[in-house]
Amino acid sequence: MLERAKALQEKLSELRRTIHMNPELSFQEYETAALVAKTMGELGIECQTGVGKTGVVARLGNGEGPKIGIRADMDALPILEANDVAYKSQKPGVMHACGHDAHTTMLMGAAMLLKDEEFNGEIRLLFQPSEENSDEEGVSGAPRMIEDGAIDELDAVISLHVDGKIDAGKVSVSDGFILSSADTVYAKIIGKGGHGAMPDKARDPIFMLAPVLTAIHGIVSRWVNPVQPAVITVGRLEAGTASNVIPNEVELDITVRSIDDDVREQLLVEIEQALSVAKAMGGDYEMQVRRGYPALFNSSTVAGWVRNTAVELLGSENVIDKGLVMASEDFSYMSRASQGAMMILGTKQPDGPARHVHHPEFDIDESAMPIGAAIMAETALRFVNGNYQ
Question: What is the architecture of the domain spanning 2-179+295-384?
Fold first, then answer.
């Protein structure tokens, strides 16, 4: 399978660069979905468009046995690309800075590898919109796909994500939690504005901020079970307009991350307790929570299938265990609805710089794409053929 995938290198690079030059934001992946549907048609594979708004679902097999899904996300980010390459984004301010162009390409590559295979069962290709953002109702692409029946009756679902800090030719497959939940708190400390020369006539919210910040930054170290991963970061503070003006309020934007559902709820409760310190100082607070994605859990069973395939194709020396990272991914919804696992695919040039996702200079070593396509295709094929149970 890997040798067959390597023979597709030129075609995969062409597809990936076409998508990279024409990035589309969340739930706007019309051109990308059209390219996917066109490619599926050329391969003779049945597909359905408009799933989860702008997603595509393709099906292989007769549907009379085991069923497994392979998922790839399609959307780009609102980032101005800084790379000077022939396939640079042609849409200023929009860029594939998280590798979803490669994810989509590799899933099309898996389709190319699987199209002539005969088996009892179904391999379902899930081209998902909007992993990076949510719609007007606060719902991202994976839940929208689930609502539209994209993973109905699947026994398992697998996916991958590129990593520009791991050398191309290597992959990471981990059991258990591999990514955290991610919630955002938008808060205000409310005081009473006034003249900077007469603070006694006001209620200074900046003065209240110091103990509030101390309380917030003490939550993880003092109130959370120390064996539970948790992160709270105040990423934005805004207050005031002039040195001699006491403002009415201070705004705070806070990211909140964990893997345990109970800890996730506890962190939000503790943040509100910390904000309430402002009341003891004659002020008040407001707090709004935007729920993000739940933590991503890799089934040890499904991760084992992917790992076994990767070891056979690449050798054990090229299969590592990166473990937990406190980032988030909405594949977590699918892995909770059907046992699942996500593999991390190295895309760093061995002698090149590390490429961080969500950065204007993000790019990949395209030689990794046949590896991702082959592992996903071979794992799915072995499952429907009864080699993995």
Answer: 3-Layer(aba) Sandwich (3.40)
